[in-house]
Write a structure and sequence with these properties.
The protein is an all-alpha fold. It contains six helices and no strands. Helix 3 packs antiparallel against helix 4, helix 3 packs parallel to helix 5 and helix 5 runs antiparallel to helix 6.
Length: 118
C-alpha cells in the first residue's frame, strides 16, 4: 500500500505530465523558472530548498511544503535542521501555520521510515 510520500509523488508527476502536455508557453516557462531557480548558484541547493520550505510554510501550501521537505531530505537536511527551519516559518507565519507544521512533521516521518525500510 503506497504511503503519502509515494501518493504525493505519483499524483504530482501524473498531473505535471498532463499539464505540460498541453504545450502552453507561459506555464512551461513558469515550470522551467521554478526548476532552474533551485539549482546551485551563489547559494547551494540545500539552502535554497530550506528557503523554499520556509516560504511554502508561510504561504500555507501543503503541496509545496511536501515537495521541499522531500528535496531537503534528499539533500541531506537533518531532522534538527528541518525543525529549526520550520520554527522560523512558524515564527514568521504565526500560529495559523501550525496545522501545516503538523502535516510537515508527519511527512518527514514517512520520509525517514521509507529510508529506514530501504
Amino acid at each position: 500500500m503506497p504511503n503519502q510520500v509515494e501518493e504525493f509523488n505519483a499524483y504530482r508527476q501524473k498531473m505535471n505530465d498532463k499539464i505540460l502536455s498541453e504545450d502552453h508557453k507561459i506555464i512551461k516557462r513558469i515550470f522551467n523558472l521554478d526548476t532552474n531557480s533551485y539549482k546551485a548558484g551563489h547559494l547551494d541547493v540545500k539552502t535554497k530548498e530550506l528557503l523554499g520550505l520556509v516560504s511554502s510554510t508561510v504561504l500555507r501550501c501543503d503541496d509545496c511544503i511536501k515537495y521541499h521537505l522531500e528535496t531537503c531530505f534528499n539533500e541531506g537536511v537533518t531532522k534538527e535542521e528541518m525543525m529549526e527551519t520550520l520554527s522560523i516559518a512558524t515564527l514568521v507565519g504565526g500560529t495559523i501555520v501550525i496545522p501545516h507544521l503538523r502535516r510537515a512533521y508527519e511527512f518527514w516521518e514517512e520520509l525517514e521510515l521509507m529510508k529506514n525500510n530501504n
